[in-house]
Amino acid sequence: MRRHLLTSTAAMLLAFTGTAFAGMDEAKTFLDAEVGDLSSLDRTAQEAEMQWFVDAAKPFAGMDIKVVSETITTHEYESKVLAPAFTAITGIKITHDLIGEGDVVEKLQTQMQSGENIYDAFVNDSDLIGTHWRYQQVRNLTDWMANEGKDVTNPGLDLADFIGTSFTTAPDKKLYQLPDQQFANLYWFRYDWFNDEKNKADFKAKYGYDLGVPVNWSAYEDIAEFFTGREIDGKKVYGHMDYGKKDPSLGWRFTDAWLSMAGNGDKGIPNGRPVDEWGIKVDENSRPVGSCVARGGDTNGPAAVYSISKYLDWLKAYAPPEAQGMTFSESGPVPAQGTIAQQMFWYTAFTADAVKKDLPVVNEDGTPKWRMAPSPHGVYWKDGMKLGYQDVGSWTLMKSTPEDRAKAAWLYAQFVTSKTVDVKKSHVGLTLIRESSIRHDSFTKRAPELGGLIEFYRSPARVQWSPTGTNVPDYPKLAQLWWQAIGDASSGAKSAQEAMDSLCAEQEKVLQRLERAGIQGDIGPKLAEEHDLEYWNAEAVKAGNLAPQLKVENEKEKPQTINYDELVKSWQSN
Question: Is the link from the previous residue into 448 a cis peptide, with omega within 30 of 0?
Fold first, then answer.
C-alpha cells in the first residue's frame, strides 16, 4: 500500500513540473496529499515554511540540480516523492540519484580530487567528518549559513532540533554536514522467547541468574549458548547471528563501532579522546599520532583483540553455519525468519522490514515478537565510553560546486529535512533526525509496533551511540583496510592478534603518507615515537585516560542481565 501511495503521490506532483507554474498552489496540493497532520508544524506554520521556500527559490527557478545519496528507503522517498514536490513548488528541477554507499564515496572522492562538479550536493555519512575537516574541500555550514548562504537558509531550520549535529561538527566547532537520516546498531532479541516461563526456568537453573537483556558480553555469551540447538515451535534455533564472508561489507561490521562495544579506546561522547574507537590516537591539536599500541594507539591492543576473538568464537559456535559465508545484505533478513534468539549487532534500518505482518516474528495484531535494546558491553568497557554506532547520512556541499548551484541544492537539502515534512518522512524510513519528530504523538501511537525503536530514541541511552569521529583523517582510504585484515581472521588465515597487528600497521602507512605529503597541513598526522604497551598505558593513566588498556586476566566477567520492561520504565522516569 505504501509503495502505491508513494508512486501515485509522485505522479500527481510530477504533473505540476511540466508547467511553468510553481508556488503556493503547488505547495498546498503537496501538503494536502502527502503531509496532512503528520508534521510537527500546524497547517498555518507549514504554509509559512513553504512560502519561504517559494520566495527563496525564485532566483534559481529553471535550474537543473543534481544530488546523490545511497539507496535506502528514506532516500527513495526523497527521490520519488519529495524531489518532484520540491520541483513543483520551487521551479528548481531536482534529480536525486540513488546509488550504492561505496559509489557515493567514490563520486565524492573523484570530485575532491578533480575539482569537477559531479554533484551539487551529496548525502554522505558523517563518518567522513574528519576527512572533510582536514581536507577543507567542503563548505563549512556554520560560515555558509552566516554569509554566502544566508539568503537561502531557512529561518525555521532549527539546528537545535537535530539530534545528530554533534556528529557533524569538527574540532573547530564548525558544522560541516546537515543530518538527513540516521539509524543505530542495537541489540535485537526475541521478547516472546525471553518471557517464556520454561525458557526462563531452564536458564535460571543452568546459569543461576535471570534470563533478560544482557548488560555485558558474558551474559550475551551464556544466552547464545543456552538457545543454540534448543527446539522452539518445532524448529532448531540459534543463539546468535552475524556474518563472516571476506567482503567489503565485513569492514562496516567493525568500523561501525564494534571495538568500542568491547571497550577499545578512551572515554568520551560522541567519541573517545584522545584514542577513538578505531584505536587511532590524536594529540592535543587533533593530529593523528598513531594506530598501533607502539605509538599509543589501540587498534591492536588487548581490547581490540578481545573484540575480534569474541566475534570469531560466537560466529562459529552459536550462529547458523551458513552465516560464516554470508555478507551484510545476505545476513540482514535472517533474524526475521524466526530461528534466531538474539543478535548483538542489528541495524535499526531493518525495522520496517522486520515488522511486516506475514513474518514469523510478528504477532497477528501486527506487534513484533521481538524488541531492540541497548547493546551489551565487553569486559574492557567503562562508563563514559560510547557503546555503539549510529549511521548519520548528512548533506554535504563541496567547495567545487558553483555558488548558485550550491544555494539551490541547499534549499532542497533543507526542504527534505524541514519540520513540515520530517515526521512523514520519518514514518516512511524510520531514520529519525529531529527531536520534534521523535516526540510527535503519531510515534507515541505507533511505538508498540516498532519493537523499542521509539523508546530507545526517547531514552537518555541514545547519546552513547555515535558515528566515526574526527580522529580518522581519511575515511575512504582507511576504511577499506578493515575488511581485508579482519577477513583474514574470519577465514582462519590469521589469528585475531595477527589481523589487528596487520590492520594497525596498514593504517599507519596511510598516516605516514599523509604526513609526508603535508596535504592536511597542521591538523594532519604527525606520528609518535614507538614504545611498548606498558609505557603507553602508564602515560595514559598518568593523563587520566584509559587506552591502551593492559590485558584483563579473566575476560569472562560476572554475567549481568536486566528485565526489558523494567529498563524501559527507567528511561521513562528520567
Answer: no
**Residue 362 backbone class (left: φ over 0; alpha: ψ -120 to 50; beta: rest):** beta
Tell me how far apart the terminal alpha carbons of the chain are, to the nearest angstrom: 38
Question: What one-character DSSP code corresponds to residue 551?
Answer: P
Task: Please answer whether residues 256 and 371 qualify as being in contact, where contact means their C-beta atoms are separated by less than 8 angstroms.
Answer: no
Closest of 253, 452, 281 to residue 371, by C-alpha = 452
Q: How far is CA 105 from CA 115, 174, 240, 444, 472, in A?
A: 15, 22, 32, 36, 15
Give residue for cell 591492536. 300
- Return left, alpha or beta for 61; rule: phi > 0 is left, psi -120 to 50 is alpha, else beta: beta
Work out whether the CA dihedral 206, 207, 210, 216 comes out positive or negative.
negative
User: What pLDDT is recorded for position 573?
Assistant: 60
Ramachandran category for residue 109: left, alpha or beta (phi over 0 → left; psi -120 to 50 → alpha): alpha
Task: Kindly tell me if the per-residue pLDDT of 144 is higher than 80.
Answer: yes
Percent of the chain with pLDDT over 90: 91
d(CA 177, CA 173): 12
Cα separation, 210 vs 197, whole angstroms: 11
Q: What distance in Å separates the CA atoms of residue 399 and residue 376, rounded to the nearest whole number?
A: 41
pTM: 0.93
